Amino acid sequence: MSKEENTANRPDNTAFTQQRLPAWQPMLSAGIVIPGFVIIGVAFIGIGVALFVTSQNIQVLEKDYTGIERNSSCFKCTNPRVKNCNCTINFSLDKLFEGPVFVYYGLSNYFQNYRKYGVSKDAVQLTGDLAYFTEPSTTCAPYQRDAKDKPIVPCGSIANSMFNDTFKLFQIVNSGNVEVPFDGKGIAWWTDYNIKYRNPTTNPLKNAFNDTVKPIFWPRPAYELDPTNSANNGFINQDFLVWMRRSALPNFRKLYRRITEGEYAKGLPAGDYALVIGYNYPVLAFEGRKKVVFSNVSWMGGKNQFLGIAYLVIGSLCVVMSIVMLIVYAKFKFPDEE
Amino acid sequence: MSFFGMTWKRNRETEFERKLRANDREYNLSFEYATNGIKTSKYNFFTFLPLNLFEQFQRIANVYFLFLLLLQVIPQISSLSWFTTVVPLVLVLAVTAAKDATDDINRHRSDNRVNNRKVEVLIDGKLCSERWMDVKVGDIIKLESNQFITADLLLLSSSEPLNLVYIETAELDGETNLKVRQALIVTGALGDDISRLAGFNGEVCCEPPNNRLDHFTGTLLFGEHKFSLDNGKVLLRGCTLRNTHWCYGLVLFGGPDTKLMQNCGKNSFKRTSIDRLMNVLVLCIFGVLALMCAVLAVGNYLWEINKGYQFNVFLPREDDSGGASLSAFLTFWSYVIILNTVVPISLYVSVEIIRLGNSFYIDWDRKMYDARSDTPAEARTTTLNEELGQIKYIFSDKTGTLTQNIMTFNKCTINGKTYGDVYDYLGQRQDVTENTEVVDFSFNPLADPKFSFYDHSLVEAVKLGIPEVQGFFRLLALCHTVMAEEKSKDQLAYQAQSPDEGALVTAARNFGFVFRSRTPESITVVEMGEQQRYELLAILDFDNVRKRMSVIVRSPEGKVSLYCKGADSVIFERLHPSCRKLMEVTTEHLNEFAGDGLRTLALAYKDVDEDFYSRWKQRHHKASTTLENREAQLDQLFEEIETDLLLLGATAIEDKLQDGVPQTIEQLAKADIKIWVLTGDKQETAENIGYSCNLLREEMNDVFIVSGNTPEEVKQQLRSAWMTMKPDMAEGMVFLPEKILGKVGSALKDEVVSGEYGLVINGNSLAYALEEAMELEFLWTACMCQAVICCRVTPLQKAQVVELVKKYKKAVTLAIGDGANDVSMIKAAHIGVGISGQEGMQAVSSSDYSFAQFRFLQRLLLVHGRWSYLRMCKFLRYFFYKNFTFTFVHFWFAFFCGFSAQTVYDEWFITLYNLVYTALPVLGLSLFDQDVNDAWSFRHPQLYGPGQLNLYFSKMAFFKCALHSGFSSLVLFFIPYAAMSDSMRQDGKDLGDYQSFAVVTQTCLLFTVCIQLSLEMSYWTAVNTLFIVGSLLLYFGVTFTMYSNGLFRLFPSAFSFIGTARNTLNQSNVWLTILLTSILCVLPVLTYRFLTIQLWPTINDKVMFKARQAKAAPPPPSKRTRIRRGSSRRSGYAFSHAQGYGELVTSRRFLRRPAVSHSSHFTPMKSTSSFIPMGRSAGYSPTDGPHNAKAQGVEGTSLQMYRVIQDQTL
Lengths: 338, 1210
Known about the structure:
Chain A is an alpha+beta fold. Chain A has 8 helices and 11 strands.
C-alpha cells in the first residue's frame, strides 16, 4: 500500500488534536509537599507573630453607654419620653493614647444586613436626580412617602434610621474642661462622597427639597444636617455617608470622628476625660447596645487579635503536619515497590 | 412540502389500503398520497423559535430555572435581581438553540440534496427528467444501473432475461451481496416500449405504508386479470440497482411512506451511568435544598418572633397580617432562589461541552485513523464518552470485526514439499513484510492481480510442469462449487459460497489453472493457457459429517478422475496404502501450519476405472431417486468411491485477522474487560479464531464446550463446567439462584475462580441457556470464564446475550460489530461500536462510535474512555464542590442576617461566578487533563480498573465533596467574619461594611476554588494556566469595571458596589485574610491526599509516580511478533459453510449470470415458474431446498428489527 493514497480524511497532526500539548505534570510528591508545608508553616508563623505583636500595640478604648445599668449615667436617657438628653461618661488614660486617634460609635444586635432593610433606599435619588425626589423608587417602602403621600427624601429605611447620637470629648485639666477637637472631614469613602452620592445642583440646596418631606425619624431635613458647615449637607453629609454604608454583621462600629488637630494630633495624653453624649438613638427596643470606641491603627488596620492568632495556629499546624508527613513518608514510601 | 410538514401525517392515519392506477395522476391525486419528497428537518424559518423553545422547556432543568425566574418577579420573595437567572438561562437556551439550528440546517441540506436528485419519469408518453421530490405515486420511472432507487417501486420490466433486476441492499440491511427481484411476466412484456408503458393502466391495490422490509402484499389488476404481488417484485427505496442496464418501475410509496423512511424510528436514547447517577444526585440535592430552605425558614420564623418585631423601630412591617409565618413562608422561597446555585444550569451545559470536546478528540485521533480505507474514527454519539472508561464486558462479532473475512492462500504442501515460506540466502525463514518480493504472475493473463504469494519456488514448479503440482492446482480448479462470472474479456470474478473456496480457486487461477466457467455438466478450465473442458460427472457434496467434497470429472482425454478435498483426518483414512510415507510428511507439515493458526485442507485424487464408474453411476442414479433412506444410501455410495485416494498435498489458508487483534485482546484482558465473541460461524471456526486471536489460550486450564441438544444436556454441561471451576461449590450439586444472587434485585457478583477457563457454546445450546430457567446459571458460569465464545448465534440471540448481562450484572457493556446482524446487539449494549470503512453501513449507522479497525478499540477504551471518565469525574467532583462551597456560605450567613435571604456576594458575582469566573478553568481541566499519557495508559491497562468500579464518582465521592464544601464554606465565611468584625482599615475607617465583606468573601472564594482546581489538575498545559490566571485577572478586571465610576453613573441602581473594590482591596489585612482563608481551605485536602497516596496508593498514583520519574514516554508495549502455538492442536479445516451447494450446481436450476462467451445461447433450462428469486446472492440463487433453508436459518436476519438512518443512505 503506497503512502500517496487518498488521505483526505486524515486528522490533523497537531499537539492539540492529538492531546500532546506540552504540560507540567505536578504530583503530590513528598519532595514538594513536605517542604511546602514547612515553608507555609514558617511563613505563617512569621506573619502571625508580626500581626500579633502589632495588634497588641494598638490601643483601644471601648465605652458602652447604652445605659441599661441603673448606675450608668446614661440610664436617665433610656426613657423614650426624654428628649435631647445628654449624659457624660468619664474615663482616664494612664498613658498617652497615641494618635491619630479615631472615634467610633458601635452598635450591636443591629441588623443593618437585613435584606429588606438593605434594599430600602433609592440609589438614583441619592445621586441627586431630582426626578426621583418627587417619585422615589418603590424599593424605599415603607419609607417611600409619608402619611400625607409626600415623597420622602432621602427615602428608605436606611436613611430613616440614621444614627443621631452626638459625642463631645473633654479633657479634664486643672483649668477646666478642654474640648478635644473632633475632625469630621473625610470619614466617608472618597467614592461615596464624590461619586455615589451627589446633591442636586440646585442652589440653594434647600429648593431641591421643595414638596418633599424629611425622613420621619429625622429631626432636621437633609439640607440642614450639619448647621456648622454648609458644605456638609444633603446627601454628602459625612455622617450620613458613613451610615448609609451598611454593615455586614449585626455588631458593628462606624467611624464618627478623628482626632487629628492641634495638640491632640499626637494622641490623647494621659489624664481624665469626659465624654458628653447627646443621647438620641433608641436601641433598647431590640436589645441593642451602643458604645463609643477610641482606637488608633497600624499598618494592618485596627486591632484584631484573631488574624495573628489564626496565622500562628495554622502555621504551627503546618509544621506539625510536615513532621507527621515526613514520618509517614519515611515509613511507607511506596514508589519503589510494584 | 407543506408549510408545517404535517398534512401527510393526517392522511396516513386513515389509510387502510393503498389504491393507485399507473399513469393516472388525477386518480392517484384524489387519495392525497405523500409525494416523494422527504423531510427530516424539524423546523423552518418561522417555526424554529417557538418549536425549539417548546422543546427546550421540556427539559426539567430549564423549567426549574424558569420557575426560579417567576419567583424572582415576586417582589416579596425576590432575593436576587432578575438578571442573575435570566442571563444564564438565555445563554443556555441560545447555545442549545444554535446547536439545534445548525443540526437542522444540515438536515435541510441533506433533504434538499436528496429531493433534488433527478430521475426519468414517464409523463404524457415521454420520459422527462424530474426531481425526486416531484415524483408522484402511480408514476412510472426508469432506473439505470448503479442508480439509487427513487421510491418504493413495483418492478415492471427490466433489461435482463426473465425480467430480473439485481439490487444491492447494503444500505437497507447491510448485506453486501446482490439480491434479485423479478417482474411479473405480464408487465415484463412491456419491455422498454415507451408507448406501451405509457398506455399501461394497471391498478395496484396493496397494503398501507409500513416498516416491514421483508414483506409486501398486494394485487395488480391489469386487463382482465388479477396478479398477486409479493416482496420479490418490489424495489425498495435505499437500494441500489446493479448489473442491470435499465428497469421500469411503478411508484407505490413515495417519500415518507417508503419502507426506508418508515423504518427511521427514533433511535433509542442512551444515557450513561454517570447521567443516571447525576439524576439521583440532583434529586438528592433538591432534597437538601428544600431542607436547607426549611431550616432557614424556621430560623426566620423564630428570628421574627424573637428579634424582628423588636427591630420594628427601624424596619416596620408593611403589613402585619401574615406575621412571622408569612415571613417564614416567603423566606423559604427567597432562599430557594438564593441557594439555587447548588444545581446550576451551567452544570448541564458544561457536561455537554465536555462530552462534545472529548468526542472531538476521538474524531481527531490520528492513531485511530485507518489510512487504508481513509477512515477516521467517529464519535457518532457525543453523550456517552465517559462510559467508555467503564466498560466491563465487550461483545464482539467475529467476521469482519476480529477477522477481515479475507481468506488467503498462504501455504501448501505438495508431495511432501512445503511452499509458501520465504527463506533468505542462509536458509533462515523470514517473516513476510511489505518489502518481501511478490511472485510475478504476469505469465498468466487471467491471473487475479490482488492475489499475492511470496514463494517463488511454487510458480517455478508449476512452470516446470511437475505433475503433482499441476494435479494439485487442477484439483483446486475443479473441486469446488464456485461460480465464475466473466464481466469482460479476461475479467473473471468468482462468486464463492465460502471465502475459503474462493481463496483456493483464486490460488489455482493464479498458478495457471483458471476456472473459467461451469455449466451443470461441464467445467471449463484454462490450464497453463490452454482451454480445457472437463465433463462434470458428479459432485459428492460437503456436509458436516463427511467433512470433505469430491467431484468426478471426465478429462478432455476421456479419463475419469475423482478429486477430493477435505479435513485431513477424513482424507487420511481413505488413502491408498502407498501414500503412507507421504502422509507422515504431510502430517508434519499440517501440524506446522496449524501451529501458525492456518486452516488446512488435505487434497487427494484417484483415477476411476470407467466400468466401475458406470456401474457406480447407475447405483447413484437409483439411490438419488429413491424416497426411502436416500441419504444413507448416498453416503454409502460416496464412501465406496472415495477410497484408495492418492494424496496430493494440503493447503493452508489464513483467515486473516484484523491487524493487532491478539495484542488488543490481550490488553483488554489485562484491563479486566471480559470479551465475549458472538458469531454466526460454526464452532470449529469460532474456536480456531478464538485461539488465533489469543482469546482462548493453550495455557488455560480448560475450555468447556457446551453443545447440547436438549435443555437437560445443556444444563448438565454447564453444571459440569462450574463444578470444575468451583469444586467447593460442587458439593451442593444444585444451583440455587437465590444463593448466587443474594437478595432479589441485587446484581450478580463476580466469582473468584482459580485458574483460567474458556467457554464455547453453540447457538442451539444458547437458546436453551437463555431461557428463564437457566439464564442465571449460564451467566454465572460464563462470568467465571475468562473468555466466552458463542457460535452459530442469530442476531436476536446476540442481543439477548447482551441484555442478559445488562440485566444481572451491574456492568457497562460494549458491543462491536460490522454487519447488519450485529445491529441488534449494538443497540442493546450500553455502547455500540461499528467497524466502518467496509461495505454496508448498517452497523455503523446504528452505532455510537465507529472506526475502521478492531485494534482501535483499545485506544478508544484505554485512552479516550479512561480520560473521558477521569475528566468527567474530576469535573463533577470539582463542579459540585465549587457550587456547594459557593452556596453554603449563604447558609451560614443566614444566621447572622436574620434569615432575611440576604446574599453574601454581589449580585453580579453571583451571575458571573458559574458562567464566567469559574467556567473556563474547569472546562480546561475537563478537556485537557490526563493523569498519565497514552503510552503509559497502554503499558498499564490496569489503570482502567477504577472506572469499571465507579471509583472516581459515586455517591460516596459526592458525599465527600459535600463535606469538603461544608468545611470550605465554614472557613470562607467565618475567617472573613472574624477578621473583619470590629476591625478597621489603615485609614481608620471601619472595615466591616456589607459591600467590603462581600468583596472579601467572594475574592476568597474565587482564590480558594482556583487553588482547589490547581490541586485537581495533573496536566498543566499553557491553556490551563491561561484559563486559571486569566479567570482571576478577569475577575479583578470585571470587578473593578463593575465597581467603576462610569458604570455607576450610567446605571446607579444596578452597580451599587461602586468603589468597593478600590477601597477594600488596598488593605493589607484584607489580603492577609484572603491568603489565610484560601490556604486554610486547601491545607487539609493536601494533607489528606498526601497521606492517602503514601499509605494507600492506588494504581494511578503508582503509575503516575513511575511516569514522572521516567519523564520520557515509555516505549510502547512490546509487540508480540507472532503468536505461535507449538501445540499439536489441529486447526479447523477450511470450510466455513454448513452445507455445500453441490446439488444446486448440478440441479440445472441454478441461476447465473452467463459468461460473456455463453451469454447468447443462455436459456433457462426449466420453466421459471418454480424459481423463487429470494436467495442471498444473485450469483446463484439456491432453490428452497431443505438444506439451504437450514443454511439460511443460520445467517438469515429479520430485517424489520433494524432501523435505517436515511442520511447515510440517501
